[in-house]
Amino acid sequence: MTMVSSLKELIDEPELGHSNDPEERFISSGVSWDSYESLLTKLENNSHYRVNYLDGILEIVSPSIRHEKIKTNLGMLLERFFYSKRIRFVPMGSSTFKNKVRKAGVEPDECYCIGEEKKVPDLAIEVVLTSGSVSKLEIYRRLGVTEVWFWERNQFKLYRLRDNSQQEQATVYPDTYGYEPISQSEILPELDISLLEQCLTISDSIQAIDEFEQGLKAADELK
């Protein structure tokens, strides 16, 4: 079931309500950049939806409660890591990043600038519970995001941008849109990804924080 029957209906609808469907996805092709920007304007005060755009393909996702719980807990644990390691960061949440010339736009689940604030985040994170048709890595390549993480099936898949040229298609790691699959973050080399994965599967937030901080402390003591 789609949220609405057409893009025009979505843009013109006076009020956007929340559906009973746990996670919905609306996809439309042949959408102009102006229509995409009109939709963003319509939704600027409604943080419930995530909007992605690539070469005229528009994707709107209405995240489930489970999705939002994972996103929130992930952000909470990462910020504990930043504070623990005294890493200066700028949380940018699900802000909209877009480039008209490159015909790409995205709203990550979480994203961060490391050090100081920049126009494009250094790290973008996506919580994947259902697959989408718009290639997120291609969008992120066109925007120049250095690292992208996908949380899927209780584990992370990490990607590092190697081809940030302005070419229409990536020539380095073309199968993954210019991103190299990596096992350890290069932006956050001290972060134990397996510890983060383990704690993110814990439903109790306090227990998750306790185990994460204990893991960080134990790692520090081994140094």
Automatic annotation (TrEMBL):
Residues in Putative restriction endonuclease domain copies: 36-193
Stored InterPro entries: Nuclease_put_TT1808 (IPR012296), Restrct_endonuc-II-like (IPR011335), Uma2 (IPR008538)
A Pfam cross-reference name: Uma2
Protein name as catalogued: Putative restriction endonuclease domain-containing protein
CDD domains assigned to the protein according to its UniProt record, in alphabetical order: DUF820-like
Highest classification ranks of the organism: Bacteria, Bacillati, Cyanobacteriota, Cyanophyceae, Nostocales
Domain of life assignment: Bacteria
Species, as recorded: Nostoc cycadae WK-1
Coiled coil spans: none
